[in-house]
Amino acid sequence: MSVTPAAVLEALSTIVDPVQGRDIVRLGMVKGLKVHGKKVALTVMVKDPTTDFAQTVAEQCRAAIKAHLGPNVVVYADTDSEMISLGAPVVENNRPQNVNVSALNIVAVASGKGGVGKSTVAANLAVSLAKLGYEVGLVDTDIYGPSVPTMFGAMNEKPRVNSDRKIIPLERHGVKLLSMGFMVDPDQAVIWRGPMVSSAVRQFLGDADWGNLEYLILDLPPGTGDIQLTIVQTVSLTGAIIVSTPQNVALADARKGVAMFQQVNVPVVGIVENMAFFAPPDLPDRKYYLFGQGGAKRLAEELAVPFLGEVPLEQAVRETGDDGTPIVVQHPDSASAQAFLEIAKDAVRQLAIRNAELPPTQPVEILYR
Ligand SMILES: Nc1ncnc2c1ncn2[C@@H]1O[C@H](COP(=O)(O)OP(=O)(O)OP(=O)(O)O)[C@@H](O)[C@H]1O
Ligand SMILES: [Mg+2]
Fold this sequence. Notes:
37% of the residues lie in helices and 21% in strands.
């Protein structure tokens, strides 16, 4: 078996922190991962260096990696007890204050182009992650065209506030949900400008009672303008997922989306190709590539970002989106639901690699006029 970051993390995911009851990869404890040939270096961040677990975890890492990848692998493993900072707040005047949300992974789902299926992917990704057993939140940041209320059958819902005056997210299919659509009438919001949207999103993220999330998915509005950038600045994003159809116009915009995130140092953890092909229900083996074939996969290869998978064009995706129960719940055996589940698993892997290899994203200052 070749020694790759993914293989190393798979080996390490067999090691469970006895206090937290979860494996060290899932807990984001593996840092500074480097793989060179057959040499692996890593640091495990422990909360309390005096525990038995903290004192043996480096040895456990060496043993697990050698057991999975062969005795010839050279492992440099140590521990550190520095606190892992999540979204360190920026405290400076004249500058939006970064919101501190307790979520191990904050992931934006974006695209340059509208209507390619961001909201559909974000919703089904969130529900798939919940089905895989993770603690998940989903925020619809699209103030002008919110989709989450429709997609989760929560059109007339108004979230309540708890005794600490924090907004309590709704819960559907194991996912904690908030949508700008719950707070602001989209007809009123059309006149809002970037800074207003940004401050609303910030309040909304920071003033909600999310609990301890493992994944917080942000469904972004279409485009790569001011609004997307300010939202991206509101929290320290772990990574971004770009959705595209195989069509050239969508791919050109997806490329802009990737460039936008790279400019603000947010790693793109994957590209999803949506509406990849149509397979008639009565002839499921026949695939029609209505928008072209494999374009998003090629784009991912060209830009050296992971390709997370393709979702077919299926009538049931649209229908389940409209009637308020995502396809991964309503038709879990459908081709699209299966695709969403695999995409979720791959997103988990890619985010784990990102967290182990790179430090948390630092907010980049963007100056407006
Ligand atoms: N794989 C698919 N098969 C069939 N219909 C789909 C698929 N993906 C998305 N759709 C449908 O396409 C439409 C647009 O999808 P969606 O709202 O998710 O796109 P979006 O990128 O979020 O749009 P916007 O840019 O307006 O936010 C919706 O009606 C949705 O149900
Ligand atoms: Mg949308």
